[in-house]
Write a structure and sequence with these properties.
105 residues; mainly alpha; two-stranded antiparallel ribbon
Amino acid sequence: MKTLRFGIEIETVGHKQERLLETALGVSAARLVRNCRPIDAAILQRLEARRPRNLQEVNEAWYGRRNSILNRYDSSRYHGLNLNSLFFRGTIEFRYFNGTMHANE
């Protein structure tokens, strides 16, 4: 239950400090558009309105519906703070970084 509450709180605090994180970490504009979009205000509204008490309720708030068929590559994962990972690995993923596969960068 503590992990669940932490996930909800980190989403809320993350949203408030998102611009600061992006600036401090130097996240590129291209990455912000594709791979680490801002936290969706609708998700925050659902989390705050429902005050989830279990993982299924967090699932419903995150996806906007009951999602029993989980997809690792669901489009919701491409937010700076990814709760989609919570339903697969039991972890929260932070995507605020610039990554490359090029050895010289």
